[in-house]
From TrEMBL:
Known catalytic reactions: cytidine(34) in tRNA(Ile2) + L-lysine + ATP = lysidine(34) in tRNA(Ile2) + AMP + diphosphate + H(+)
Domain of life per record: Bacteria
Annotated organism of origin: Jannaschia pohangensis
PANTHER family in alphabetical order: TRNA(ILE)-LYSIDINE SYNTHASE-RELATED
Membrane-spanning parts: none
Signal peptide range in chain numbering: none
Any Gene Ontology CC annotation: cytoplasm
Protein name per the record: tRNA(Ile)-lysidine synthase
Gene encoding the protein: tilS
Entry remark concerning the domains of this protein: The N-terminal region contains the highly conserved SGGXDS motif, predicted to be a P-loop motif involved in ATP binding.
Keyword Cell wall biogenesis/degradation: no
Length: 415
């Protein structure tokens, strides 16, 4: 399949038509530049239009010039282009932090310009390398299958990777024919990076990227089927009380006896929906399962969540120490909360925290520790309302999504 045909197939197939205005994330590397050229061919033969963004993470001085080069290429071809500048700091987990910040910036950009989907230039080579990297770490089904072709994130932004079945080498031909030299990121050749080391090892072994990518696709299909089944199960066994997820005692017992792995995955899915963090390590998962099996102590915290067993069952909710800072009124707070009501100057949304003592929370359905993590609407620092703690004022709250919906969406932990 040609790269342009791969784009057409994605729009006509998995994306299901429509999508008149889309976005493309172009780093200036060979794959995303080839994506840009192929997408332009596609757009010219359909009535679609698109816009391009390049993220400068603020980490390498050369990145400014690289972003300008992409801007110049777009200007020559009459394509709208934006540079999104971030200010990341060096330090631990740099690659993961850069990736998260990049997706967040691209997501905001796409929302602002009403672009859907945002196309990314991952190729078959990336799929093969990622699979081997993950096999090496001993991850399970869900981890091995984590490179979906398209998905919609919790904000409703759709992302797509049209080139997952296209070899990097085929893309280099497109660039050569167009007389374009990609920007060579020196880290792409640096064997200290695991991905580069694996790329070189695969070439030496002569392993076929196409075969590895096919295995990754089979695993993705299996993971999808399993997640659909888990989502159905989540609908049956979880009760959502405002924002808390409660696994009723009898269901917890039944699952522990008959399908303990489903119990583990359901609890992890609940943690991910509430806390929005990556899957906890195996030893932390064991701590969670041990607590659920024998909830002797008052509760545990894990992955940005608090887990407490009471008469009703296993209750999972946000950990107070992990609540994000206040945001301006009108924005989504802590990934899940929407607050509606009259706008006024100086209004913010943040965790209720110690102000809980100003509310009649005892009359509500949430325990104190959970109510403290629900939204407070404040004006210049003074509490106006805390709808989930019995002080609604003129405000209404809504919790976005559910564990089951998140499982069905299978939002990836990004590559
Ligand atoms: N700085 C960036 N600005 C815009 N998009 C980016 C950026 N970095 C990565 N992307 C997007 O994510 C995809 C995969 O990222 P990855 O880091 O594997 O690519 P790369 O080696 O930087 O460049 P390329 O994939 O273009 O050869 C890119 O193809 C591109 O669509």
């Amino acid at each position: 399949m040609t790269p342009a045909a791969a784009i057409a197939r994605l729009f006509d197939g998995p994306l299901g038509g429509g999508h008149r205005r889309f976005g493309i994330a172009v780093s200036g590397g060979g794959d995303s530049l080839a994506l840009l050229l192929s997408a332009q061919t596609h757009a010219q033969s359909t009535d679609r239009s698109f816009r391009v963004a390049t993220v400068d993470h603020g980490l390498r001085p050369e990145a400014v010039e690289e972003a300008r080069q992409v801007a110049a290429l777009c200007a020559e071809r009459g394509i709208a282009h934006d540079i999104l500048t971030l200010a990341l700091r060096d330090g631990p987990d740099l690659q993961a932090r850069a990736r998260q910040a990049r997706y967040a910036a691209l997501g905001e950009w796409a929302a602002q310009h009403h672009l859907s989907p945002v196309l990314l230039g991952h190729t078959q080579d990336d799929v093969a390398e990622s699979l081997v990297m993950r096999l090496r770490r001993g991850v399970g089904l869900e981890g091995l299958a984590e490179m979906p072709e398209c998905w919609t994130d919790a904000r409703g932004q759709t992302w797509a990777r049209p080139f997952l079945s296209i070899a990097r080498l085929a893309l280099r031909d497109i660039l050569a024919r167009a007389g374009i030299t990609p920007i060579e990121d020196p880290s792409n050749e640096d064997s200290r990076f695991e991905r580069v080391e694996i790329r070189k090892a695969l070439a030496m072994l002569g392993w076929s990227d196409a075969h590895l990518a096919r295995s990754a696709r089979h695993l993705a299909e299996a993971a999808q089927a399993y997640n659909t089944r888990l989502a159905d199960l989540a609908e049956d066994v979880f009760v959502t009380t405002v924002s808390d997820v409660v696994l009723q005692t009898e269901h917890a017992r039944e699952l522990a006896a008959s399908e303990p792995d489903s119990l583990r995955r359901l609890l992890l899915a609940a943690l991910a929906w509430i806390g929005g963090r990556a899957t906890p390590r195996a030893d932390e998962q064991k701590r969670l399962l041990d607590y659920v099996a024998d909830p002797a102590t008052g509760g545990i915290t894990l992955a940005g969540c608090r887990i407490m067993c009471d008469a009703a069952g296993v209750r999972l909710f946000r950990e107070e120490a992990d609540c994000p800072p206040e945001v301006k009124f009108g924005k989504v707070w802590d990934r899940r909360w929407l607050v509606e009501g009259p706008v006024a100057p100086g209004l913010t949304i943040g965790a209720l925290g110690r102000d809980i003592d100003q509310t009649p929370w005892r009359g509500g359905v949430l325990p104190r520790a959970s109510a403290m993590t629900t939204p407070a609407i404040r004006q210049d620092g003074s509490l106006l309302a805390a709808p989930a703690a019995g002080l609604p004022g003129a405000y209404r709250i809504k919790v976005e999504g559910s564990v089951a919906a998140a499982l069905r969406r299978r939002e990836p932990i990004f590559n």
